C-alpha cells in the first residue's frame, strides 16, 4: 500500500468516523422536554414524532453509509477497477468512448445498488411519518429523467474533459476549468425554465391579496419581481420549502404549494423576504465565485497528479488512463473537499443569518419567527441538534438559534 492508497483510505475512514461520532452525539442531544419557544406550535405527540424521525433517519443513514464504504473497499481491494478496465478496453471503442463507457458503467452500478435504499427511504420511512406523496410512477419517471439529463448534459461535458486531458499536454486544466465554468453558468441560467419544469410544475402566483402584498414589499426593497411561482412540491412530499434560483431575466422565487397552504400571508411574505435577502446580499454570486475558484484549483491539482504512476498502483491498475485517473484523483482530493465542504457549511449558515436579518429589518420579525416554527413542525425538524453535527452537516443554523438572533435584531 503506497502513500496514495494510505491517504485515500485514511480519508474514507476518518470521514466515516467523524460522521459516526456526529450521529452519536446528535442522538444523545435529543431532549425529552419541548423547548418553550415552540409550545405554541408543537404538541407533545408531534414533538415525540420529530425525535423519532431524527432517530430513524440517522440510523438509516448510518446503514447506507456503511454499505457504501464496505462496497467501495471490497471493489477496490479486490481489483475491481482494473477488472472493469480490462473488460471495457477489450471492446476497442476508442479513447473517449472507452472512458465514457467505463465511468458510465460505474455510475450505473452505483445507482442500481443504491436503488433499494432510495426506495426504502421514500416508500417506508417517509411514508411512515406522513411525508411521502410520491407515486411509483413519479419515482420511476424521476429516475428516467435524471438518467436522460445525465447522458444529455453530463456526457458531452465528460467527453470534453477526457479530450482536454488526453490530447492537450499543456494547460489542459485551463481548458477544463473554462468548460466547466461555462457549463455551470449555462445550467444556472436555463435550470429555472428548461430543467426544473421537467420534474415539477411552476405556476405563476395568481393575482390576489398575497401577490399584492408581495408586490408592495418588492417595491419597498427595490427588487425587480420577474417571477414568483408556486411549485407543486406536494407531488412528492408534504414537506414545505421555498428557494431562489437562476439569475438575470431567468431568476425566480419558488414557493412550495404546501408552504402556501400552511402559512399566513404575512408569514409567506417574510419567507419571500428571506429569499430576496439572499439575492440582495449577493449570496448566490458569492457562492458561484467560490465554486468556480475551487474548480480551478481542483483541475490544476488534477493536472499534477494525473500522470503519477503511484495513484494508479494504489488501485492495482495495469494501465494508466485519463478516465480512471479522474476517478482516483476525485478520491485523492477528498481531504481538501472535506475541508472546503465544512467551510461552505459555515459560510452558508452565516448567509442564512444575514438573510434572516434582511427579512426582519425590511419586513417584520414575528412573521419570520412564526414561519420558521411552522416549517420546523411541518418538516419534523430536530429542534436540539448537537453543535458538532451542525458543524459538519448543517447548511442552515438550528431553528432555535435563528429565532433567538431574529428576536435580537434591532
Automatic annotation (TrEMBL):
Listed Gene3D superfamilies: Metalloproteases ('zincins'), catalytic domain
Record key words, sorted: Endoplasmic reticulum, Hydrolase, Membrane, Metal-binding, Metalloprotease, Protease, Transmembrane, Transmembrane helix, Zinc
A Gene Ontology molecular function term of the record: metalloendopeptidase activity
Co-factor remark: Binds 1 zinc ion per subunit.
InterPro entries: CAXX_Prtase_1, Peptidase_M48, Peptidase_M48_N
Membrane association type: Multi-pass membrane protein
Protein name: M48 family metallopeptidase
Primary location: endoplasmic reticulum
GO biological process: CAAX-box protein processing
Transmembrane segments: 6-25, 60-79, 99-125, 146-168, 174-195, 288-308, 320-343
Family as reported in the entry's similarity comment: Belongs to the peptidase M48 family.
Location of the Peptidase M48 domain: 204-409
Amino acid at each position: 500500500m503506497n502513500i496514495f492508497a494510505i491517504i485515500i483510505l485514511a480519508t474514507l475512514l476518518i470521514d466515516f468516523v467523524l460522521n459516526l461520532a456526529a450521529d452519536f452525539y446528535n442522538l444523545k442531544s435529543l431532549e425529552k422536554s419541548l423547548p418553550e419557544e415552540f409550545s405554541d406550535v408543537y404538541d407533545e405527540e408531534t414533538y415525540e414524532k420529530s425525535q423519532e424521525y431524527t432517530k430513524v433517519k440517522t440510523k438509516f443513514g448510518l446503514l447506507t453509509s456503511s454499505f457504501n464504504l464496505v462496497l467501495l473497499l471490497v471493489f477496490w481491494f479486490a481489483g475491481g477497477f482494473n477488472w472493469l478496465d480490462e473488460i471495457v478496453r477489450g471492446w476497442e471503442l476508442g479513447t473517449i468512448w472507452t472512458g465514457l463507457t467505463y465511468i458510465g458503467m460505474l455510475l450505473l452500478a452505483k445507482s442500481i445498488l443504491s436503488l433499494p435504499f432510495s426506495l426504502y427511504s421514500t416508500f417506508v420511512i417517509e411514508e411512515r411519518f406522513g411525508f411521502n406523496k410520491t407515486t411509483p410512477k413519479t419515482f420511476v419517471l424521476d429516475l428516467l429523467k435524471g438518467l436522460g439529463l445525465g447522458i444529455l448534459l453530463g456526457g458531452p461535458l465528460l467527453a470534453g474533459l477526457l479530450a482536454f486531458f488526453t490530447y492537450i499536454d499543456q494547460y489542459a486544466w485551463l481548458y477544463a476549468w473554462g468548460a466547466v465554468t461555462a457549463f455551470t453558468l449555462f445550467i444556472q441560467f436555463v435550470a429555472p425554465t428548461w430543467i426544473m419544469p421537467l420534474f415539477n410544475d411552476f405556476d405563476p402566483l395568481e393575482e390576489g391579496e398575497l401577490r399584492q402584498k408581495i408586490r408592495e414589499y418588492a417595491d419597498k426593497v427595490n427588487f425587480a419581481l420577474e417571477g414568483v411561482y408556486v411549485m407543486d412540491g406536494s407531488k412528492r412530499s408534504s414537506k414545505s420549502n421555498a428557494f431562489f434560483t437562476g439569475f438575470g431575466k431567468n431568476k425566480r422565487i419558488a414557493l412550495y404549494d404546501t408552504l402556501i397552504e400552511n402559512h399566513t400571508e404575512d408569514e409567506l411574505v417574510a419567507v419571500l423576504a428571506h429569499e430576496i435577502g439572499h439575492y440582495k446580499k449577493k449570496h448566490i454570486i458569492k457562492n458561484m465565485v467560490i465554486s468556480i475558484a475551487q474548480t480551478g484549483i481542483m483541475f490544476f491539482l488534477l493536472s499534477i497528479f494525473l500522470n503519477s504512476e503511484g495513484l494508479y498502483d494504489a488501485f492495482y491498475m495495469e494501465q494508466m488512463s485519463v478516465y480512471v485517473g479522474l476517478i482516483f484523483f476525485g478520491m485523492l482530493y477528498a481531504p481538501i473537499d472535506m475541508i472546503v465542504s465544512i467551510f461552505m457549511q459555515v459560510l452558508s449558515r452565516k448567509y442564512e443569518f444575514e438573510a434572516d436579518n434582511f427579512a426582519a429589518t425590511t419586513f417584520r420579525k414575528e412573521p419570520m419567527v412564526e414561519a420558521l416554527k411552522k416549517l420546523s413542525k411541518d418538516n419534523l425538524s430536530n429542534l436540539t441538534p448537537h453543535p458538532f453535527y451542525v458543524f459538519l452537516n448543517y447548511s442552515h443554523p438550528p431553528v432555535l438559534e435563528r429565532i433567538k438572533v431574529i428576536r435580537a435584531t434591532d
